[in-house]
Amino acid sequence: MSHPDKGADISSSCTSVSPRRCLMGITLAITLCVSGGTALAIHHSRSHGLMAHIHHGLVVCTADSRNTLAQTVSQPHPAMVRMAVSSGPDGQIIAGPQAAPLASVLTSAYKADTLLMLDLNQANARNVTQLVRKAHMRDRVILVTSTRKSLEDAFTADSQVMIAVPIHSEQEAHAVHRLAKHHPYAAYLSASATPDLFAAAHRGAEAIITEPPVTSKVSTADFLADKPVDIVVMHPSATLPRTEIASSHS
Known about the structure:
- The chain is built from ten helices and ten strands.
- By secondary structure, it is of the alpha/beta class.
- The chain crosses the membrane at residues 23-42.
């Protein structure tokens, strides 16, 4: 970037050189500025993305039962918020208990550096990922699928948004890995999953998601101590959807 006292003096500096060389110089300067801005945006995205959070430790995801993202700036925001999305009567994609437009939720999450876990339910995955891309949240969102169709739709909707897949057996873990190919995905395992299932899912998935057991004398810390868990969902009423994967892709 030029010095403030010299940066605006383009016309006078162009008088001593040919117009062609002057134009080339201006074009180069603009290109460097744009490239620098793009690099800065990419660095910011990577440093605040999902994998960066996972790299730094366990990510705790909370359910948005009270419009968490609407908190004031002085209040701490959670690392990740889980909410359901659906299509409104007018076709608009809405999210959370307040049925807010997903576009505004994504904007708020981006400004708060908060990750989002979105339950697709019956919402169109392509419409959801289009909003995610527009909000520059592709590396900060996980889409949770509940049916085989929603899983396949999510895999084809966007090549970079991570998909969370409920996995109930080692057979399903292998089937999902083959189905995903190079698409980033997270294995969503029940608290009752066996150590072998955790290990099998961990070998193929970019991340492991689970929930602490609802009725247990074991603390959450002890429950997670010997498991390769990256994201823990603190949601007492959450249930793991049954997605039949292996039956069609084994």
